[in-house]
Amino acid sequence: MKMNKTLLCAAVAAGLFSVSSGTYAAGFQLAEYSATGLGRAYAGEAAMADGADAQWRNPAMLTYLEGTQVSVGAIYVDPNIDIDGTSTSMMGSTPSNSSDFAHSAVIPNFYVSHKYNDKFALGFAAGTNYGMETDLGKDFGGANHGNEAKVTTMELNLNAAYQVLDSVSIGGGLRYVMADGHFGAASTANSLVPLPVGTALKYMEGDDTAWGWQVGTAWQINENNRLGFTYKSEVDLTLEGHAKGVGFDAVAKPVKSQYNGSLQLALPATAELASFHQLTEKVAVHASVNWTNWSSFKELVADIPEFGPASSQDIKQENWEDNYRFAIGTTYQMTPKLALRSGIAYDTSAVSEEHRTATIPETDRTWLSIGAGYQWSEQLTLDAGFTYILAKDAKMHEKDPGFGGADMFGGSFEAEATGSIWLVGIQANYRF
Length: 432
Known about the structure:
By secondary structure, the chain is mainly beta. The chain is built from 3 helices and 21 strands. It starts with a helix and ends with a strand.
């Protein structure tokens, strides 16, 4: 039983979190919903109405968009994350390093808005809020604590907004989330159990779909100042699929090549308070504070029905913390056709050093962003954004001693993760 809990923790819990090492907000959260917002470090998004993409952060902003509008774009993300550490067991100490283990990705998006009348508007959105892929390799010295993971989500929104007063709009929408992922851990050269290096200890994969919701409001204080607030619900997923590996074999009756199983995964609730201020004819300032309810992510529970009465297992206490993001940006209308954007943001970590793992070198991050928008024609606007993210160096100490613990298959692990992330995006906005 101890082996089952510990190794499933290594393969699933730690593996899941390896997604974080390549993500760009807290935990395994993604902030990249448009290249337009990227250029200002996503400052003030719940109060901005550049195009149909505005509904992703605040559906109430649909009432600010005239006619029918379409926004489409993509953001290329290039994380550069390295781990330098040491694994120690009774067999001795060995280097445990991995370079550039968070995979690059392209994050696409698509949005449509339609102003039905002076007060009512509808919108459709397609994008993602969570996911990434990492691979530490089978020869990674800390692979017994998790070495590979992939989580991919796709989200579709149907939104509506209504102007209840001349200065106040409200909005809401349904969210349909599709998710899949795989997670794994492997034995290492320091294993006290005689297994070839890279032997799968635990591997699990699965997928699921679920529903969520979002609401928002916007208050036009006066012609030059606006506030926005939005809230997205938690989304509960059950990733159903199969599991395999010697850790499962040790408790299975009978032993099979793979076992049916599932993992509960909650995508946390989020909220944003944002403001927009037109200081002069050419200069605007916008700011926002974001909150993510990561403290609701306390544990991971796996269900392997073939294991009988112990099929549901509390596999790890996570002890995550709520995350906050602070951002401020500017827009400068250089010419009637050209707008320049800039922004800076600070993300706080969703996990303390005490609970940080090799597969989640989650840490504080600073965003530095620039961007531009060009009005190609009366209907078409083209946007581009660029961001460089500096991640604070993250120390970690992983150990799981005792019989059946992960340390038996490679030892304890101490390391420091360093890295940075580049993001480049383009967006096209068309008004009919």
